[in-house]
């Protein structure tokens, strides 16, 4: 399968590929294939929903551009389905989310549990997971003033995404719960064990189960019986 | 084996080398020295591999006690370094005796200084780099800023170099920073892009290794916004809806939600990062 993109070249510094009507799954497969190609003239590949940025090094020649056309094989499009345990806690952000969505806490949780989320991209900070598929009733703008410290493991929503903070960081998303399994895998390769295209179903857990999982240092694949 | 120990905390200092490669795909930034040219110069003067790790100081160095004899070199910002009470020169080979104390003060012009030791430093190597990256707890002491009490050990390597063939450009500070048009440049009116070139800017002291926030804002009625997060690299200049310019640096995010108005090319970043906070400079579009 060939991928369609618009291309913008910024001298010998970087190339921007813009998603030209591909579905997200194909686009992410292409991004991964491009990253794994380890082409000589490429230093970095950053893949977002609509763009791929290819950082060039000084071996780049204009004729290298055709090498970016990499065929995607059907089998490279992943169909992994994962459960993600969440403790919906009493984070202060709930009050605002209930108000903005005009729904009860129970209705919001029930809507989240029945959603089919999909890892849309990695980015922002190590282990930050952008998941698409958030029901439109829950799509509310991010906070006007980001908080300085969001705890590692926080599950949050903002605009059209659900997201997971794997490291403590500042952030403007609304935190609804905590996820006890590890997603970061530093210093091993790959450093992050969730991948774009993974399908994610949320699973509600209580505080005892949360503590048990958190203490066990289990990663999300192990939790799903995959290693 | 040799070692040094911080006997007072520096303002902001970490271990850095030339950084990591090919991990931005996983949102792990390259990290590495803010002024790679000065880091490489320090290593070159001592005959170390050019990519060897150094201590990167921003603004003040604190005080260091050497617990064994060694040879060092300091490059970058002039922090008026002294060994005990004797002033020492930047970009030179400095012999150190056991018990010597290195100190310095706030630099007048520049911001970053590099301390290289003629030795193999005993530090954690993560993804082929010694660079600290605190957000993911990578590096010496989980990437935290170096502080009083921290000790760095090394294995001595014999010194076998001469300074004769090394050219030193001792003016890292630059009042004119080259920029190029970035993907969203064309979304802005001429009034706004003119401000970027005509106005003077300076780095806000509320900046860190992730990003440099500029103090002077761009004035406009309405700024374009993006519908989704897009990739960013070190050197990319974002323009926020409030008119603030943010330059992504070596520990910066790999995707961002603000439009990218311009970018500082990689080989110009050393000069940009040597600007002390509030020191005025201009951008020059090339």
Description:
The complex is a heterodimer of chains A (227) and B (286). Chain A is α+β, with helices and mostly antiparallel strands. Chain A is built from five helices and 13 strands. Chain A folds into two domains: 5-75, Gyrase A, domain 2; 81-223, Cyclophilin, CATH 2.40.100. Chain A has helices at residues 24-37, 93-101, 105-113, 207-216, 220-223, and strands spanning 5-10, 14-19, 42-47, 51-56, 81-86, 117-122, 129-132, 147-150, 154-158, 161-165, 169-171, 174-178, 199-204. In chain A, the strands form three sheets. In chain A, strands 5-13-6-7-10-9-12 form a seven-stranded mixed sheet. A four-stranded antiparallel sheet of chain A has the order 1-2-4-3, with helices on one face. By secondary structure, chain B is mainly beta. In chain B, the strands form four sheets. Chain B has a seven-stranded antiparallel sheet, with no helix packed on it. Chains A and B meet through strand 3 and strand 4 of A and strand 15 and strand 18 of B.
Q: What key attributes describe this structure?
A:
heterodimer, A: 227 residues, alpha+beta, Gyrase A, domain 2, Cyclophilin, 2 domains, 7-stranded mixed sheet, 4-stranded antiparallel sheet, 5 helices, 13 strands, B: 286 residues, mainly beta, 7-stranded antiparallel sheet, 6-stranded mixed sheet, 9% helix, elongated
């Amino acid at each position: 399968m060939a991928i369609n993109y618009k291309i913008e070249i910024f001298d010998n510094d970087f190339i921007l590929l813009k998603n030209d009507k591909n579905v997200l799954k194909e686009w992410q497969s292409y991004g991964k294939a491009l990253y794994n190609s380890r082409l000589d003239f490429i230093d970095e590949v950053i893949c977002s929903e609509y763009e791929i940025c290819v950082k060039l090094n000084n071996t780049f020649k204009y004729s290298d551009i055709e090498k970016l056309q990499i065929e995607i094989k059907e089998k490279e499009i992943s169909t992994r389905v994962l459960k993600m345990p969440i403790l919906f806690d009493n984070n202060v952000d709930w009050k605002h989310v209930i108000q903005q969505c005009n729904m009860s806490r129970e209705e919001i949780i029930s809507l989240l549990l029945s959603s089919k989320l999909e890892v849309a991209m990695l980015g922002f900070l190590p282990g930050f997971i952008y998941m698409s598929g958030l029901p439109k009733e829950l799509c509310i703008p991010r906070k006007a003033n980001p908080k300085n410290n969001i705890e590692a493991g926080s599950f949050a929503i903002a605009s059209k995404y659900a997201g997971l903070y794997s490291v403590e960081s500042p952030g403007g998303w609304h935190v609804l719960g905590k996820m006890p399994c590890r997603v970061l895998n530093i210093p091993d390769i790959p450093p992050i064990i969730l991948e774009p295209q993974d399908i994610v179903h949320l699973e509600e857990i209580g505080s005892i189960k949360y503590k048990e999982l958190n203490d066990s240092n289990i990663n999300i694949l192990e939790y799903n019986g995959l290693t | 084996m040799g070692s040094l120990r911080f006997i007072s905390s520096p303002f902001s200092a970490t271990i850095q080398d030339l950084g990591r490669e090919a991990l931005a795909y996983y949102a792990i930034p390259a990290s590495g020295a803010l002024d790679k040219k000065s880091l490489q110069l320090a290593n070159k003067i001592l005959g170390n591999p050019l990519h060897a790790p150094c201590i990167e100081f921003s603004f003040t160095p604190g005080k260091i006690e050497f617990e064994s004899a060694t040879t060092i070199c300091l490059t970058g910002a002039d922090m008026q370094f002294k060994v005990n009470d004797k002033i020492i020169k930047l970009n030179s080979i400095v012999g150190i005796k056991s018990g010597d104390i290195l100190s310095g003060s706030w630099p007048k012009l520049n911001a970053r200084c590099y301390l290289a030791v003629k030795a193999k430093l005993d530090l954690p190597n993560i993804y082929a780099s010694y660079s600290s990256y605190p957000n993911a707890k990578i590096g010496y002491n989980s990437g935290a800023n170096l502080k009083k009490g921290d000790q760095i050990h090394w294995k001595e390597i014999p010194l076998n170099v001469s300074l004769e063939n090394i050219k030193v450009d001792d003016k890292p500070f630059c009042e004119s920073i080259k920029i190029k048009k970035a993907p969203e440049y064309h979304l802005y009116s001429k009034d706004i892009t003119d401000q970027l070139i005509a106005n003077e800017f300076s780095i806000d002291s509320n900046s860190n290794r992730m990003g440099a926030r500029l103090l002077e804002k761009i004035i406009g009625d309405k700024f374009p916004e993006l519908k989704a997060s897009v990739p960013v690299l070190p050197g990319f200049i974002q323009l926020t809806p409030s008119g603030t310019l943010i330059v992504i640096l070596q520990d910066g995010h790999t995707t961002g939600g603000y439009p990218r108005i311009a970018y500082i090319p990689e080989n110009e970043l050393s000069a940009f990062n040597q600007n002390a906070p509030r020191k005025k400079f201009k951008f020059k579009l090339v």
